[in-house]
Design brief:
The chain is mostly helical and 373 residues long. It is built from 17 helices and two strands. It has helices at residues 8-38, 61-91, 109-144, 156-171, 180-183, 188-195, 201-206, 209-214, 216-219, 229-245, 249-266, 271-278, 296-306, 314-329, 333-340, 343-360, 363-366; strands at 46-47, 54-55. Helix 12 (271-278) packs parallel to helix 13 (296-306). It is elongated and about 70 Å long.
């Protein structure tokens, strides 16, 4: 069955449904937070400032749960219906009307991910010829359709980053998200300008693993080579979290390979990616430093890592020295100037010789050595 070309009104309905879905999710969060704060005795009414919808407070725990469940069930039903309606409308949009912009980014995580999936599938179905003509048709629509003249259009990469940014600001501590309240009142032009900028270091440093893991579905639509330096560090962290939680071995390997390629590409231009390589309890495997051995910053990072040799096991330290330092770094001049010229390397060589002597000695005399102490 072939659907007719849908107009801008259909696009606006998708926007409205996405905004409505976000509002319902906000009401649910307010109800849940208020219920937790009040505990067993609730003496006020929970009211939504947008739609004037209120829920009477309960005195006992059982009654409070019952009062909360009534709007929760209704809200959940509306939430699911708006999701299905928005996605159904988007699935029938013409390619020229399927505009990924700021208003669609206000939807929930599931809606945004599904919109990106539909957009990718639409591009694959369109084929090479029609896809090449899409920019021309979109430009013509912007010139001829008055409501579209000021409409911002993003590709999947920018749309996914914008969706991630909005949720990071919402989950960040108050100090890190000081301007997150202003994001809600930005116009489309301002949102477009912000979407093309890097994240602050504070947001990247304070982002929790659970928050990044929840946003993992959107990372699949991000082009890592186009990511700004701070964005690159955040996306690598997210990919490493996903690689540890996937069910299939092949999928784990694919995600891990993508993270490793992104690490090698962004290492030189991103101080935060360099910090990922040497900081304590880093999620980045130490062997990845071998991929960036040609950069002087890699020698500095490796020197920091080797400075913790007393905390490593003997096997881990020997592998780092043999397979990374000697096999990959030794040939570069900056390795001689930064690592081999340092006092640390003398201590490390002495520790390795001492560990070898203990390993060759009878076990009864030296005991089992687990580290280079």
């Amino acid at each position: 069955m072939s659907w007719p070309r849908l107009t801008l009104d259909c696009c606006l309905r998708v926007d409205v449904l996405s905004c409505c879905h976000s509002h319902l999710h906000l009401v649910q969060q307010k109800l849940n937070i208020r219920l937790q704060r009040q505990g067993n005795r609730l003496n006020s009414r929970i009211r939504c400032s947008h739609c004037n919808f209120s829920v009477p407070s309960a005195v006992g725990k059982t009654r409070a749960s019952e009062e909360f469940l009534r709007p929760f069930l209704l809200e959940t039903s509306m939430w699911q219906r708006t999701e299905r309606a928005a996605l159904d409308l988007a699935s029938h949009l013409d390619s020229g009307d399927f505009v990924l912009g700021p208003r669609l980014a206000r939807g929930t995580l599931r809606v945004c991910a599904e919109l990106l999936h539909l957009h990718r599938r639409r591009q694959e179905e369109a084929g090479f010829v029609s896809s090449a003509l899409l920019p021309v048709s979109a430009m013509w629509k912007n010139l001829t359709d008055k409501p579209l003249r000021a409409k911002v259009s993003w590709d999947p990469h920018l749309f996914a980053l914008r969706c991630i940014r909005k949720r990071l600001f919402a989950m960040a501590p108050k100090k890190a998200s000081a301007h997150s309240d202003a994001v809600q009142v930005l116009g489309e032009a301002e949102e477009d300008e912000e979407a093309r900028t890097d994240l602050s270091e504070e947001i990247c440093e304070t982002a929790e693993d659970r928050a990044l893991f929840a946003l993992g579905e959107l990372v699949a639509y991000v082009e890592l080579k186009r990511a700004f330096p701070n964005w690159a560090a955040l996306l690598i962290r997210t990919l490493l979290l996903l690689s540890k939680s996937q069910s299939g071995d092949d999928q784990d390997e694919m995600v891990l390979r993508r993270a490793r390629l992104a690490f090698a590409e962004a290492f030189q231009r991103s101080p935060l990616v360099q910090k990922l390589a040497w900081r304590d309890h880093s999620p980045v495997p130490l062997a990845w430093l071998a991929d960036v051995a040609e950069h002087p910053d890699a020698s500095r990072a490796l020197l920091r890592v080797l400075g913790r040799y007393r905390e490593m096991s003997a096997q881990e330290c020997c592998d780092l020295v043999e397979h990374v330092l000697l096999a990959k770094f030794r040939q570069w001049p900056h390795c001689t100037d930064i690592i081999f010229a340092s006092e640390l390397i003398q201590d490390l060589v002495g520790a390795c010789l001492d560990a070898g002597r203990k390993a060759r000695a009878p076990r009864g005399k030296t005991g089992s050595s687990q580290s280079l102490l």
